């Protein structure tokens, strides 16, 4: 399940100033050990250890190829490439020097393919807390996104957005942050 919270655009120069947008809340970051264990659980003849070794080698080899000036594509995931951290620009081509203007490297990843939930049972649930006040109209959010509530699914029903852009409901207006959860399958 994908969990989202809402955030408000506070950039006064933006045409979308003060509009509310969803943001995916990452539950945790999975390392190679957990990925290898997950992959081994999918009816593979390879053990977690063998898979972890292959993944570790893939990371090392990807970095090596990137540092040789190549891009590495993982189909339907990303194309990895190297970017430069630069310190301004030289006034003329003759004035440019690597030592003066390049301060480091960064890893870039551009998405490839389509992330689809066609073969997975995926749903989206809103996790931002909703508080009501006497000056607030019923169903209006007073909490600007941010960190999801801790301690489980205490998500109120929300006026989130479906993948098609439609409104799926109104907020419960409870101060406790509990209530029916909005769960949309995509």
List the helices and strands and how they pair.
Layout: E1 2-8, E2 20-25, H1 32-40, H2 48-67, E3 72-74, E4 78-86, H3 98-101, E5 102-111, E6 123-126, E7 183-185
Parallel strand pairs: 1-6
Antiparallel strand pairs: 1-2, 3-4, 4-5, 6-7
Helix pairs in contact: 1-2
Any key phrases for this structure?
186 residues; alpha+beta; four-stranded mixed beta sheet; three-stranded antiparallel beta sheet; 7 strands; 18% helix; flat
Question: In words, what does this structure look like?
Answer:
The protein has 186 residues and is α+β, with helices and mostly antiparallel strands. It contains 3 helices and 7 strands, in the order ββααββαβββ. The strands form 2 sheets. A 4-stranded mixed beta sheet has the order 2-1-6-7, with no helix packed on it. β3 and β4 form a beta hairpin.
């Amino acid at each position: 399940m994908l969990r989202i919270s809402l955030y408000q655009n506070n950039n006064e120069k933006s045409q979308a100033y003060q509009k509310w947008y969803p943001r995916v809340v990452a539950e945790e970051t999975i390392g190679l050990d957990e990925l290898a264990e997950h992959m081994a659980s999918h009816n593979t003849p390879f053990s977690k250890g063998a898979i972890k070794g292959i993944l570790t080698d893939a990371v090392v080899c990807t970095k090596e190829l990137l540092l040789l000036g190549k891009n590495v594509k993982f189909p339907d995931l990303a194309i990895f490439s190297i970017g430069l951290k630069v310190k301004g620009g030289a006034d003329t081509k003759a004035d440019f020097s690597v030592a003066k203007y390049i301060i480091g490297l960064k890893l870039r990843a551009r998405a490839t393919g389509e992330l689809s939930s066609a073969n997975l049972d995926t749903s989206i649930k809103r996790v931002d807390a909703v508080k009501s006040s006497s000056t607030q109209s019923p169903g209006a959010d007073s909490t600007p996104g941010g960190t999801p509530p801790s301690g489980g699914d205490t998500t109120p029903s929300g006026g989130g957005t479906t993948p098609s852009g439609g409104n799926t409901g109104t907020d419960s207006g409870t101060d406790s942050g509990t209530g029916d959860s909005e769960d949309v399958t995509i």
